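Marked as duplicate of an earlier ticket. Keeping the data here for the record.
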Amino acid sequence: MVQDGSAEKARWLRDLSRFLPLRSQFVLSGNTRDLHILEVAPGQVTAAPLSKVLPDALRDAGYARIASFDLLNGFRAVEPSDESYLTQLGLTAPNGAAAGGIDLLSAAIERHVGSEGAPAALIVDFASRLIVRNEALSPAEHQLFSRASILSHSARARPAGERRQPFYNAIVWIVDKEGDLPDWFLVGNPRVRHIPIGRPDHIARRAMIRSLVRSLPGAQDASQSELDKCIQGFVDETEGLLLLDVSAVAQLARSEAVTLDRISDAVRRFKIGVTEDPWRKISRDKIRSAEEFVRRRVKGQSHAVTHMLDIVKRAVTGIGQSPRGGRPRGVAFLAGPTGVGKTELAKTITSLLFGDDSAYIRFDMSEFSAEHSDQRLIGAPPGYVGYDVGGELTNAIREKPFSVVLFDEIEKAHPRILDKFLQVLDDGVLTSGRGDRVYFSEAFIVFTSNLGIYVRDSSGARTPNVTPEESFESVKKKVRSEIEKHFKQVLNRPEILNRIGENVIVFDFIRSEVANEIFDQMVDALLTDVRSLGYDVSLSKSANDTLRGLCLADLSNGGRGIRNQVETHLTNPLSRALFDGGAQTGCLLITEISAGSSTSLHIESEPST
């Protein structure tokens, strides 16, 4: 319990109080299984379940007799003073309870609506469970809601109390969602009021948290300013959580001895199950010296490497992280020509963080171009095939919340999917098809794209927008311009680009000097692999020059194109020569490379040294 002179009733309670004199039946849906703030005395509030808050609200409004019903417990008197009312409903109710099913409920609501005497209310809890199939009601189900619908129109308000205010004998149906009841009963019925119950706002969370923080480890010795700081942080970091969740976070903090000043750790543990903050465990020295490590694998993109490492350092330090939204640790949008190292940079960052560059979660967005392919990512909604499987993205993040998530060729995804990314970038949370909230607060998000490399001319043909002959500054300017045009004019989703901000990193073409570095690295790696098989193969200078000319003749496909040419002119003919010639292990020298319909090699044996 907590003193809070500014406590205010929740909106749904205010709506209920406002319409009680105007409607005879109500449907409460949404956040019905959570705790709710209850004012137990002027200025004193506590958290209680709906089964306590709702009857108290009805009692305060002037209802003298209140009963409840659910399929498990049947009919119950809310207070001992209400026991006689169950008898008036025709029920045998020793000790204030009476067993009953849907047939008995159907008869009881008719007696309830026409009951004389003090105003009465009947609460039908778990009303969603009254119906097996909404589209095919059983006779008993149809009779229940047909009777309820007719009674909603025939009910009449009667004056009661000292002020002689109008009162109906109200029926309150509590459901999971509005569509759980027959449409013809609720939709378009002016005598039934639907009142949604939303998730708790910051005012409700603050009212509850003020009492919870005093039970946290270290709270007894904390100053008021320290308590206030904890309260504010607790409120901010629990944005979107239920009051039940807030209470569970406090319980988790107590059971695992999480001190007052580390309440964010308890919230993280509750949301994603991570005991420690993995980002804090990353070696600062490793990140500080990472530039050389990254540049060994990503050639000729020094600006991109520097920018990406800045994002990584910000993710590790936590600077700029908003506790309220829980946004991803880092977001990068890598754009540029094909084969220039965009995916390789994502893999390298994964290796830097995890020690394994295959540990990232990758999605090829060309596979998500259909309108309903978002269901593959988040899962199908209830009633659809695949609902029980869940979504590929939500399942992956739930399993590995601390991860690099790579979305390759994002421009090929259906625009409907981009709306999902907006939720991730803005709030750091995504709701799966099953209604579970999946948190991205520990994830590092990387998008790759070829946007801006080609454009459509007046005839619709695809023409180059940038070429290797242009300077990098010109390439960067044109690519960024096309990216902005695509999101703002083509997709009409400028807000997505705004969430990415200045983290759009444009890659340069593979220039000749960089191409030579890539070529040397690939050839050296291949010959090293060959040596591990027992063949000590080397190239003469003339053969190396010939191979270099063949592999670097066309740089339009970047490093990937160089790799393909190395395979064509070295890997494949070398494999063929070693296999067909029955070469024994030992020292071999490639003296000549002859290109034709298929490349051939001239290999000589060298004496072992």
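See parent ticket for discussion. The chain has 23 helices and 24 strands.
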